[in-house]
Amino acid sequence: MPEDKRPSVKNDEKYEKLRDEGMSKEKAARIANTPNSGEKGGKAEQYEDRSKEELYEQAKKVGIEGRSDMSKDELIKALRNH
User: Fewer beta carbons within 10 angstroms: which end of the chain, N or C?
Assistant: First the structure.
Protein backbone atom coordinates (compact mmCIF):
# COMPACT_ATOMS: atom_id res chain seq x y z
CA MET A 1 0.00 0.00 0.00
CA PRO A 2 1.46 3.40 -0.91
CA GLU A 3 2.41 5.50 2.09
CA ASP A 4 -0.07 8.28 1.30
CA LYS A 5 -3.02 5.87 1.20
CA ARG A 6 -4.71 4.37 4.22
CA PRO A 7 -7.03 1.40 4.50
CA SER A 8 -10.74 2.02 3.97
CA VAL A 9 -12.41 2.69 7.32
CA LYS A 10 -16.01 3.03 8.49
CA ASN A 11 -15.30 5.28 11.47
CA ASP A 12 -12.79 7.96 10.43
CA GLU A 13 -12.82 9.68 13.82
CA LYS A 14 -11.97 6.47 15.67
CA TYR A 15 -9.29 5.60 13.10
CA GLU A 16 -7.56 8.97 13.44
CA LYS A 17 -7.67 8.79 17.25
CA LEU A 18 -6.07 5.35 17.22
CA ARG A 19 -3.39 6.48 14.76
CA ASP A 20 -2.65 9.51 16.98
CA GLU A 21 -2.18 7.08 19.87
CA GLY A 22 0.51 5.31 17.83
CA MET A 23 -1.44 2.33 16.54
CA SER A 24 -0.47 0.85 13.16
CA LYS A 25 -2.65 1.64 10.14
CA GLU A 26 -3.75 -2.00 9.89
CA LYS A 27 -4.78 -2.32 13.53
CA ALA A 28 -6.46 1.10 13.64
CA ALA A 29 -8.47 0.27 10.52
CA ARG A 30 -9.47 -3.14 11.86
CA ILE A 31 -10.76 -1.60 15.10
CA ALA A 32 -12.45 1.32 13.33
CA ASN A 33 -14.25 -1.14 11.04
CA THR A 34 -15.85 -3.20 13.81
CA PRO A 35 -19.66 -2.94 13.80
CA ASN A 36 -19.77 -1.20 17.20
CA SER A 37 -16.81 1.08 16.57
CA GLY A 38 -17.02 4.22 18.65
CA GLU A 39 -19.58 2.79 21.05
CA LYS A 40 -18.73 2.45 24.71
CA GLY A 41 -19.55 -0.38 27.03
CA GLY A 42 -18.32 -3.33 24.99
CA LYS A 43 -19.19 -6.65 26.54
CA ALA A 44 -16.56 -8.80 24.86
CA GLU A 45 -15.67 -11.98 26.68
CA GLN A 46 -12.24 -11.85 28.32
CA TYR A 47 -9.54 -13.76 26.47
CA GLU A 48 -8.92 -15.90 29.56
CA ASP A 49 -12.56 -17.05 29.48
CA ARG A 50 -12.35 -18.19 25.86
CA SER A 51 -11.28 -21.64 24.68
CA LYS A 52 -7.97 -22.15 22.94
CA GLU A 53 -9.91 -22.90 19.76
CA GLU A 54 -11.75 -19.56 19.97
CA LEU A 55 -8.46 -17.75 20.53
CA TYR A 56 -6.92 -19.59 17.58
CA GLU A 57 -9.80 -18.52 15.32
CA GLN A 58 -9.44 -14.90 16.44
CA ALA A 59 -5.67 -15.06 15.83
CA LYS A 60 -6.35 -16.50 12.38
CA LYS A 61 -8.86 -13.73 11.67
CA VAL A 62 -6.33 -10.99 12.47
CA GLY A 63 -3.42 -12.73 10.73
CA ILE A 64 -1.15 -13.75 13.60
CA GLU A 65 1.56 -16.01 12.23
CA GLY A 66 2.75 -19.06 14.12
CA ARG A 67 -0.59 -19.42 15.90
CA SER A 68 -0.81 -23.18 15.37
CA ASP A 69 2.23 -23.73 17.61
CA MET A 70 1.06 -21.36 20.36
CA SER A 71 -0.34 -22.28 23.76
CA LYS A 72 -3.47 -20.58 25.06
CA ASP A 73 -1.36 -18.10 27.04
CA GLU A 74 0.78 -17.35 23.99
CA LEU A 75 -2.33 -16.77 21.86
CA ILE A 76 -3.67 -14.34 24.47
CA LYS A 77 -0.38 -12.44 24.54
CA ALA A 78 -0.18 -12.35 20.72
CA LEU A 79 -3.77 -11.08 20.41
CA ARG A 80 -3.20 -8.36 22.98
CA ASN A 81 -0.02 -7.19 21.31
CA HIS A 82 -1.18 -7.39 17.70
Answer: N
